[in-house]
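Quick start: what a row looks like.
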Amino acid sequence: MSVLQKLLFYIGVSDEASGKLLGIQRAVDKTCGNAKKSFGGLSSALGGALSAGALTGMIGPARAFNKAVGEVRSLGTGQDALDALQKSAKLFVIQYGGSADEVVRSAYDIKSAIAGLQDTELASFTVASATLAKATKADTGTITAYMGTMYGIFKAQAEKMGKAQWVEQMAGRTALAVQMFKTTGAEMSSAFTALGANAQAAGIAAQEQLAVLGMLQSTMGGSEAGTKYKAFLAGVGNAQKELGLKFTDKSGNMLGMDKILEKIRGKFGDTLSVKESDQLKKAFGSDEAVSLIKLLLTQTGELKKNIADLGRVNNMDKAKEMALSMTSVWGRLSSAWDVVRISFGQRILPTINKVVGALVKFLAYIHKCIEIAPGLTTKIGLLAAGLTLFGAVLGLVGAFLSVAKLGFLGLKVAGSPLVSMLKMLTLGSLKFAAALLVNPITWVVLGIMALVGAVVALIYYWSDLVAWFSNTSWGQGLITMFQDLRQWWDNLTAGFTDGTWAQTLMGLLDAIMAPLRALGNGIGWVGEKLGLINGESPKIEASGIAALEAPRQPQALPGGVAGQISTATNNNGRTVTVGAINIQAERVPSLEEMEEMCYGA
């Protein structure tokens, strides 16, 4: 066999294989298409669920925020105070992060603990407490309770200074004390809770109380520090008699802690022996008081400096500085986005609430209907339950069929010969019947026929049906229900009949369409200049360039490549034609075996 004949043989085999591969490719494409259709329903369902939840996500923050505002309103808070509170809470979370509704909710506790707060004072107390909580790593509830306690202790000073200015000063001093003494806001709150108003009753300034309690917390907790300070104050009066020292000034007011400690140190020295400790215990009446003296006896100079530093704070700049240092820009971004959603939701909630209110009235009407005709309601309920159960069964069947369809897509390709054999064994009558049953058109036709029959029967027996219906108690109840339903519908649609909403909508649409019309006019002008509007088109001329034609489609020649080459090739004036080679074997021969078949063994 010549080289050309071998070439033609190989090409013929390739033509046969390419046809089979094309069939396989088509089967794969069909499989992919079926898979895409099977997953399409799931994608549509998920998309619908996500779009349905979009409204809830949009107005959810506003609902939570308005609920917190409603809680504060329930305490008799005026609208001006509520407006100032909402504005301050939003600005706070934008600057420091956090939850705006949590800030507003803390105002409920402040309003409950502190009576007589004016419009802006409630907002000032709330923001100062939230800032101090952020600065001292305490939760808002703890600091809110702390501010309530401090106001109860220093109420006279707050009234004299002004509540808003006092709370800012207290927040700044507490923040500085936490920073100076390496404590926390929660511990300072525990210390003052244990101390109570004992130091204030003795005329001790707030900055001194903060300094003493702060220095004690270097070796103990806040509650223990407050307890020791309270014990010391309780024993001062008796101690000055027992020790022969005077701890009061000319006016009878108690001296500062630093001065009392200096007098004790002048009598006993920098250290205390066991005997001296017992003497102090007898004088002050408790071990807690002696523990305080031992801890602060040699730190009178530092105590005096701390009192002076705290006394110079008159605002809450220190608290703001500490709060900012603990704030993340990403936390601020998230909180700012929540504030935007709150403000947006508050604008649209009134309209949504009207619609929801109408739906609530409709549900109340449904309840009324149930009360009017309980027997009919039971029958309808049973029917609805049956339909729901039937729908659930159909849904399970549909889900099973969808899963089976996806699972057998591969088998459909791999087992196509088996499928063909099974199809040949199926009876034609059974195929026809099954096609009718699974065809939706069959059920539609049957449904239409049933509907037509029902309408004909309804017309024929209409007079008897009306008479029977009017004489039943449940029928009269239905008539009452429909009358109420019509009245409810008329009330719901009354707001849409005055034309105001339509005029507003048309004005909005006109404002939106104005720039679009201007853009359309500009496009039209460009089109006229280019000759595209009046049926003309730009003409491109170039010498020596032929007109553009549509791309040619490749045409498959009959007989394949081998047929064409064999027909067009001449060997010594004779036409050499290679016919089709059909190979039937249990397996596909290799290329070497094919050559042996052509050349001979």
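That is the whole record. The radius of gyration is 46 Å. The first strand starts at residue 570 and ends at 571.
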